[in-house]
From TrEMBL:
<feature type="repeat" description="TPR">
    <location>
        <begin position="102"/>
        <end position="135"/>
    </location>
</feature>
<dbReference type="Pfam" id="PF13432">
    <property type="entry name" value="TPR_16"/>
</dbReference>
<dbReference type="Pfam" id="PF13414">
    <property type="entry name" value="TPR_11"/>
</dbReference>
<keyword id="KW-0802">TPR repeat</keyword>
<dbReference type="InterPro" id="IPR005123">
    <property type="entry name" value="Oxoglu/Fe-dep_dioxygenase_dom"/>
</dbReference>
<feature type="repeat" description="TPR">
    <location>
        <begin position="34"/>
        <end position="67"/>
    </location>
</feature>
<feature type="repeat" description="TPR">
    <location>
        <begin position="170"/>
        <end position="203"/>
    </location>
</feature>
<feature type="repeat" description="TPR">
    <location>
        <begin position="136"/>
        <end position="169"/>
    </location>
</feature>
<dbReference type="InterPro" id="IPR052943">
    <property type="entry name" value="TMTC_O-mannosyl-trnsfr"/>
</dbReference>
<dbReference type="InterPro" id="IPR011990">
    <property type="entry name" value="TPR-like_helical_dom_sf"/>
</dbReference>
<dbReference type="InterPro" id="IPR019734">
    <property type="entry name" value="TPR_rpt"/>
</dbReference>
<feature type="domain" description="Fe2OG dioxygenase">
    <location>
        <begin position="365"/>
        <end position="505"/>
    </location>
</feature>
<dbReference type="Pfam" id="PF14559">
    <property type="entry name" value="TPR_19"/>
</dbReference>
<protein>
    <recommendedName>
        <fullName>Fe2OG dioxygenase domain-containing protein</fullName>
    </recommendedName>
</protein>
Length: 545
């Protein structure tokens, strides 16, 4: 008992290591001690080891089902892990045992909001506020929900009441600003945002909202000041850079440039009213700003580079020998093989990786790195999200992909289709169809009015396209998946076996030899596997976290 008390004290005094040691001693003697299980779980949670935390707290609950607090903490962990649906259930259990804790209602409400149950969330926030009228978190979130739903009177009441007791609560200040703007009270909204910035001078949300309302009232000089302040903050703060995994592999200067440009474009979009600028414009504007100027330098040097970048795809025959294709198929003929150590070993040992890097450097004049390599097979009945016309929007326009078909499609009839980059662009500009996952069902609705204008097949609504369906095993197609609309076509029989690589260009003048690129590519691929990120399809070089 003594021991448990001192462990709890250590925990409350934030001496996590000390507390952990004592809890473990207790559990060594009595492995079912519920308080020790519960609080050890909380220690793991504080350290971000969520899986262990969940297991310990569940064990504690098995020993003592009456205590509402372990349920509450379990709910919080599930919410951190994004399992809001489960969190809701666990918070409910906690509330069955004790309805008097405002924080439980608050967290319950947050989880409900996450899963879209806004009416229930509002009720739960109200319960939190009834128990603790000064709960600024509950007031801020309830105010925001009410504002969203146009219940402006109640929203204002809730936020003002919270601010009366917590005049410096930045979330309430910003949410009040949003509400006041909604009510057309621009001056008051501006004052509320400015107050939030006074309290927290690096509160990005407040700046963004302030910039928006200043722009609405036409005070452009002040908008510029906001943009300058934000830019300065972004460049001062390295957090975004640090958050990028593999950052040690990144050419830092370039990344910084890309990040600051992203910031500019985002701001431009935010302040010019997102509604009017289409998603296509935004994505392409970022790409156009980020890459050619600082990256390509002058013109694209070679004809093949033009083909790849301007047309969007480029065919290469005989990338892999027939023997090697057969060997790869016999080794990886498995529907679910994604990236694996064995795959990397094979493409490395057989020189495929090197020849891929040599080819792309020949085609574009740029050294490249490979950051993803997968093997996939597809049969007649297999469906994939890539079966519809799409771009890979999470790539940028300078990121090439290579698909090598490892078996002939003469009998099978499998294919990948590509729309010329210029036509792709026209289709997207005119229809705002980006092939985003959520848009894929609406392709026909979006383009059917454009049949004549874009010369689209009136029956299938397919645009003119190139069919890549090689007869010879080992043929590959390079493409820029963010420039060229494309789609996968299942074979009519048999299977289609494909080896695919994703690459990223390095600055032309970086002086990297093919050897260095091979070595670095292996490092990247192995690093991904080590971190369990085989399924990540995000170019580590170009994404701001
Ligand atoms: O399965 C296919 O051919 C489509 C592949 C694809 O969309 C891609 O690799 O980006
Ligand atoms: Fe794709």
């Amino acid at each position: 008992m003594q021991q448990l008390q001192s462990a709890v004290q250590a925990y409350q005094g934030r001496d996590l290591d000390g507390a952990e040691a004592i809890f473990k001693q207790i559990l060594a003697v009595n492995p079912k001690e519920p308080t020790a299980l519960h609080l050890l779980g909380c220690i793991y949670k504080d350290r971000g080891q969520l899986q262990q935390a969940v297991e310990l707290i569940q064990a504690s609950i098995r020993e003592d089902e009456s205590n509402p607090i372990p349920f509450f903490n379990l709910g919080k962990i599930l919410a951190i892990a994004g399992q809001h649906e489960n969190a809701v259930g666990v918070f409910q259990e906690s509330l069955k045992r004790n309805q008097q804790i405002p924080e439980t209602w608050f967290c319950f409400a947050n989880a409900l909001r996450e899963i879209g149950k806004t009416e229930e969330a509002k009720r739960a926030y109200r319960n939190a506020l009834q128990l603790n009228p000064a709960h600024a978190g509950a007031a801020g979130n309830l105010g925001a929900l009410l504002t969203d739903d146009g219940e402006l009177d109640e929203a204002e009441k809730v936020l003002r009441r919270a601010l009366a007791s917590n005049p410096e609560d930045i979330n309430c200040l910003v949410n009040l600003g949003i509400l006041l703007k909604e009510e057309g009270e621009f001056e008051e909204a501006i004052a509320s945002y400015r107050k939030a910035i006074e309290v927290k001078p690096d509160f990005v949300d407040a700046y963004l909202n302030l910039g928006g309302v200043l722009k609405d009232v036409g005070r452009m000089d002040e908008v510029r000041q906001i943009v300058a302040a934000l830019r300065q903050m972004k460049s001062l703060e390295d957090e975004t850079l640090v958050a990028i995994q593999d950052k040690t592999l990144v050419f830092d200067w370039h990344h910084r440039r890309a990040l600051s440009l992203f910031c500019e474009v985002e701001l431009a979009a935010a302040f010019s009213g997102m509604e009017s600028s289409s998603h296509f414009d935004a994505v392409k504007q970022v790409d156009a700003l980020c890459f050619p100027a600082s990256f390509l330098g002058e013109q694209i040097a070679c004809e093949e580079g033009k083909l790849l970048y301007e047309k969007g795809y480029l065919v290469d025959e005989g990338l892999v020998s027939a023997d090697l294709c057969a060997q790869l198929i016999s080794q990886f003929n498995n529907r679910n093989e994604r990236m694996s150590a064995a795959l990397i070993e094979t493409v490395l040992a057989d020189g495929v990786l090197r020849s891929v890097l040599e080819r792309i450097s020949l085609h574009t004049g740029f050294p490249h790195l490979i950051w993803n390599c997968i093997y996939f097979t597809k049969g007649p009945d297999d469906e994939a999200v890539s079966d519809a016309w799409h771009y890979d929007n999470h790539y940028n326009v300078w990121t090439p992909k290579l698909m090598i078909y490892l078996n002939s499609q003469r009998e099978e009839g499998g294919a990948t289709h590509f729309v010329d980059a210029a036509l792709s662009r026209q289709i997207s500009e005119k229809s705002d169809y980006m092939g985003l996952v959520f848009q894929r069902e609406s392709y026909s609705d979006r383009v059917k009015g454009l049949v004549e204008e874009l010369n689209i097949d009136p029956v299938t609504l397919d645009p003119e396209h190139y069919v890549f369906s090689p007869e010879r095993a080992g043929s590959g197609v390079w493409f820029c998946p963010a420039r060229s609309l494309h789609r996968g076509v299942s074979p009519k029989k048999g299977v289609r076996q494909v080896l695919s690589f994703s690459l990223t260009p390095l600055p032309r003048d970086c002086g990297w030899s093919v050897d260095q690129c091979v070595e670095k590519s292996i490092e990247i691929l192995k690093d991904k596997i080590e971190k369990g990120r085989q399924k990540d399809d995000v170019n580590p070089y170009w994404t701001a976290a």
